[in-house]
Design brief:
13 helices; 29% helix; alpha+beta; 9-stranded antiparallel β-sheet
């Protein structure tokens, strides 16, 4: 097993303090949005080798993919780490976005290559041929938009907004078209129609956002309600952006620490505020739908979006007979294990289905295998090749505080997806 050094991404929406506080260090003075732990080609972690040198994790895997990944992961996903782990700290809302299925990603990537659109082009929608299912585990209270709500719920919000705008003598024509769409008999068609009306509204949509922000600014905060409070906040961050009103079509969900959210292909979502562990398939394929100055490819966005209303898809904790606390979304690429261990506790077996990355967020713990051992302290992380197992997590004697670690590996039932991958 190998200690890692990871890359911190300073996106403007990131918290300047949350990750530093989590790891007990001084802030950098800049936004610290995401800590990437894995082998993403843009920002791979560095492996600390026994001779004291460091090597990008991408190169380490390339040098021995069978040993690093294991036969099953290598056969399913090829010679690359199939997952990317992040510590994500949002102070401001990220863009509304949707990710494609694996089949859509492969078709879209091939089509844009055939059209000779440079990979670096802002007009590019598909930067690789992989899908990007995600899961977010909350470390603090975490707010997100996730999936479409029932149309009748959105009608209630938009009718309430209509009353406020009418009282202010503001133009409500676009809003009336949105409400009419939402009252259609087919739920998915109704939501799609309202979504398109707002997204393609141009100057009329921008004016509606401005007028909405103005009327909500006059409402006392305690009378606003969480959905309209979110609209008011988003309008401050993204003036005239239709995504602020599209938020009323989506579920506004708040995760408490220890809760997890699954984000499958086709799900419109946006992280708003909070600190969490995010795990995803390694891909950059994002179709944006608002809350962004970046390019929005509306035809492709509509092609891959799932407009069916859903409840936010939570991932429930699973406790195994071996005392493992697992979070297993319905994706082949990854599962998450949370390990909390105190001085005097029985060692916990690491769930290993191929390669593993481990992150310590508090305390200290000893990772022990037949090959070697490694002590991780708060903020430390490690890569464990598939060839090194079993690994037990031991408490450190006389530690100042309990240890909490997160470990990511391939799904325990990943082999069940083999037929699906082979069919593409």
């Amino acid at each position: 097993m190998y200690r890692l050094t990871n890359v911190l991404r300073p996106y403007a929406w990131g918290s300047p303090t949350a990750i530093a506080e989590l790891f007990g260090r001084e802030p950098s003075g800049s936004p610290e949005a995401e800590l990437w732990i894995g082998a993403h080609p843009d920002s791979p972690s560095s492996v600390h080798l026994p001779d004291g040198d460091e090597q990008p994790l991408t190169d380490f895997i390339d040098d021995g993919p069978g040993l690093a990944l294991g036969e099953n992961a290598l056969a399913l996903f090829g010679a690359k780490l199939p997952f990317l782990t992040k510590v994500l700290a949002a102070d401001e809302a990220l863009s509304l976005q949707v990710h494609p299925t694996l089949e859509q990603a492969r078709e879209g990537f091939a089509a844009e290559n055939a059209a000779k659109i440079p990979l670096s082009s802002p007009e590019r929608s598909y930067r690789d041929d992989n899908h990007k299912p995600e899961m977010l585990f909350a470390l603090t209270e975490f707010q997100a938009l996730c999936g479409f709500r029932q149309p009748q719920d959105s009608v209630r919000f938009f009718r309430g907004l209509h009353g406020k705008l009418s009282a202010a003598d503001a133009d409500t024509a676009l809003l009336e078209r949105v409400i009419k769409s939402l009252e259609g008999p087919d739920e998915s068609a109704a939501l799609r129609g309202a979504f398109v009306t707002l997204l393609e509204g141009g100057a009329e949509s921008a004016a509606l956002v401005d007028n909405t922000a103005a009327v909500l600014a006059a409402v006392p905060e305690e009378e606003t309600g969480p959905e309209f409070a979110a609209v008011r906040w988003l309008a401050e961050l993204y003036p005239q952006d239709p995504g602020t009103l599209i938020s009323l079509l989506l579920n506004l969900t708040t995760l408490q620490p220890g809760q997890a959210l699954s984000l499958p292909a086709g799900n419109v979502h946006a992280y708003l505020r909070g600190l969490g562990i995010e795990v995803m398939a390694t891909s950059d394929n994002v179709l944006r739908g608002g809350l962004t100055p970046k390019h929005i490819n509306i035809p492709e966005l509509l092609k891959i979006t799932d407009f069916r209303p859903i409840e936010p898809p939570r991932v429930e904790r699973k406790l195994t007979d071996a005392g493992q606390e697992l979070y297993c979304p319905p994706f082949a690429e990854f599962q998450l294990q949370r390990i909390a261990i105190n001085d005097g506790d029985t060692p916990v077996a690491l769930a290993q289905h191929g390669p593993v990355v481990v992150l310590a967020v508090s305390g200290s713990a000893l990772l022990d295998s037949p090959v070697t051992d490694l002590t991780l302290h708060r903020g430390d992380s490690a890569f464990i090749p598939a060839s090194e197992q079993p690994v037990l997590v031991h408490p450190v004697l006389n530690a100042d505080s309990p240890a909490v670690l997160f470990a990511v590996t391939c799904a325990g039932n990943a082999s069940e997806f083999a037929e699906f991958y082979e069919s593409l």
